[in-house]
């Protein structure tokens, strides 16, 4: 067995991972919360608590922001870019050295299969590697003002940045926000989701071991009300990066408006996978299944709507159902095909969507029920589900379910598929499967989404900007665009003649 599998086997026996942090990470070290209270973190695969962590308060947020401000003004913003490069590069290497422990912690905390968690850790390391290479390449412009003037611009770090991290991809989302912020010269206060606090804390510790000065990266754990709200409304925070629901994003945006704080919002989606009758059906089949059943469908950019041409609908859906029914459910550390959903409350939400659809007469082609780990009878699981021939007005088509539930919409042709794809309040991503590359690119231009995948869902990587349109939010993460989110442009014009 690999190191990760060996550690996973030990955790399955003991029910916990030894040595997990139980305090905030502030000013370069772990510290107890101000009122010395804690919360439990639950293993979704068992539905049982496995560890506790600090329950933060506004006082803890104030301490973390003060530490970040001090580090920004006294150390980090003026550090030579090449020195920031070296620290982030070392961090990337240390993430890989600690990959097994990070992946097991991620799987245990979030529920996702271990192989998926290992991929997330590799992606986090790559994120720091990518932005390490960008630190000393933030170049400004010069302006042609004539022989008597010198005009130029420089990119300056925005200052103290707040990061509100979701529970579905804890280490991935932490890395994609922290790495560019640190590369730009900003300091960080991160608030991980209360369901999944541990990898953000472990990552902050790794950054310190890589040489990050004290106070540059701080992590405060706790609830949205006690930690998230004070952080997003803090007058000494210069920028907020938020990933989560539309409703919470609106509250964050409102709080930011009061202090005129910059924001990047990624608020989820209801993304279409358009499958045309000229597609490579095997590639399309694999893409559709991965798009909805990876991480039990708990992905902002999940391909949760299959929009398929009528001519291939029957055969395609029949095969899709045939491949879906034998998918193995189980505890994430046992590497199932599909793991649990993250919490009891979220399981109830998913079940509510499907139950209402069933009551309204929806065609449930497969799945559709709450279940448990077949090995233990425990955990928060929902069967991989396909709802066929859904109408555009159906709730399961229009609302984000955030679970292993695929809705199928039938299109008459490519133009109708475009109409169905765009008939949505969200606009995060979309997938297109077609052997006609010209047709696929025409669709890609006309679908209203921030990122389009052609003939491979989830194509790309940290190099490709990511973010949404419409109610999926605004701003971009990843790529050089993501780095610019943490910069402010200063223009300078001088008379020299």
From TrEMBL:
Keywords for this entry? Answer: Oxidoreductase
| UniProt family annotation | Belongs to the aldehyde dehydrogenase family.
State one molecular function term (GO): oxidoreductase activity, acting on the aldehyde or oxo group of donors, NAD or NADP as acceptor
Q: What CDD domains is this protein classified in?
A: ALDH_AAS00426
UniProt xrefs under Pfam families: Aldedh
Q: Which ranges of the sequence are coiled-coil?
A: none
What parts of the sequence cross the membrane? Answer: none
Record's protein name: Aldehyde dehydrogenase family protein
Active-site residues, Swiss-Prot/TrEMBL: 266
InterPro entries per UniProt: Ald_DH/histidinol_DH, Ald_DH_C, Ald_DH_CS_CYS, Ald_DH_CS_GLU, Ald_DH_N, Aldehyde_DH_dom
In terms of PANTHER family, this protein maps to: ALDEHYDE DEHYDROGENASE-RELATED
Domain of life per record: Bacteria
- Which residues, if any, are the signal sequence? none
Kindly give the SUPFAM superfamilies that the UniProt entry links to this protein.
ALDH-like (SSF53720)
Organism expressing this protein natively: Roseibium aggregatum
Q: Does the keyword Lipoprotein apply?
A: no
Q: Where is the Aldehyde dehydrogenase domain?
A: 35-492
